Amino acid sequence: MPSSHSNQPRRTLLLTGASRGIGHATVKRFSAAGWRVITCSRHAFPENCPWEMGPEDHIQVDLADPVSTREAIALIKKRLDHGELHALVNNAAISPKGPDGTRLGSVDTDLDTWNHVFRVNFFAPIMMARGLINELKAVKGSVVNVTSIAGSRVHPFAGAAYATSKAALAALTREMASDFGRIGVRVNSIAPGEIDTSILSPGTEKIVEQQIPMHRLGTPDEVAKIIYVLCTETSSYVNGAEIHINGGQHV
Questions:
Q1: Considering only CA atoms, which of 250, 249, 191, 242 is closest in space to residue 216?
Q2: Which of 20-24, 67-71, 199-203, 229-233 has the lowest mean pLDDT?
Q3: Confidence of residue 49 (pLDDT cuts 50, 70, 90)
Q4: DSSP alpha helices (H): ranges in the chain?
Q5: What is the pTM assigned to this prediction?
Q6: 164-182: b (≥16 Cβ within 10 Å) or e
Q7: Sheet holding 186-192: strands in order across?
Q8: CA triplet 44, 201, 43: central angle to 5 degrees?
Q9: End-to-end alpha-carbon separation of the chain, Å?
């Protein structure tokens, strides 16, 4: 499908963490609008989430490993048409649990786990954006970092390492908006609350009942729609924002 302006080349999105939930919905949203989508995740191409040009535009990468991440960036550069990247969405994240799925707090999270979480959730996004800065600059592209409601309040299920990595990513979004904004690249973040995906914990229904004014979970597509807006002209003067997508849970 061509882009909305037939005389313009097709726009390209690079998305990390594409195999399920919000990532899966984001692929579908951008593909439907005619974008080429290049996906990165630690899994091979997910057969249960097929999209046009799937395997050819999927890169397997271990974002916890800086060497693997740098190799992936080099591969992405080769695959981009005319050295242009219109949007980068840093969606990949890990949220480890203790034995029996228990929450890992600040007292019982070991340093290796903390390091691992920060490498994926915090360092990979800035490595990706810095590594592809020229390709983003070439078309005045957009970066969207996926943070979390857990980055600004203690959450009953999300552990301390995940929460602090998301808080750090929100702060990084501001720093990037200041630095990248000068070269015409906008950087924003979205902070989802309780979204109906496979990673929801048992007990979420209590949060829905007691804390969310809208009394329902969000859908992955409701998040993907906002990501799409932040990568298009609709949000041309939005830079350094964190958009809360949580049905009013934070109020």
A1: 249
A2: 199-203
A3: low
A4: 21-32, 66-79, 111-118, 124-131, 133-138, 160-181, 204-211, 220-230
A5: 0.92
A6: bbbbbbbebbbebbeebee
A7: 58-60, 36-41, 12-16, 87-90, 142-146, 186-192, 242-245
A8: 5
A9: 41
Q: Which two tokens stand for residue 22?
A: 């919000």
Q: Quote the pLDDT of residue 18.
A: 83
Place of tokens 């740098």: 70
Average pLDDT, the chain: 89
One of 30, 45, 162, 180 is an active-site residue; which one?
A: 162
Cα of 44 vs its chain's centroid, Å: 18
Tell me whether residue 228 is one of the annotated catalytic residues.
no
Question: How many Cβ atoms sit within 10 Å of the Cβ of residue 32?
Answer: 12
Distance (Å, rounded) from C-alpha 168 to C-alpha 248? 22
- DSSP-derived pairing of the beta strands 36-41 and 58-60: parallel
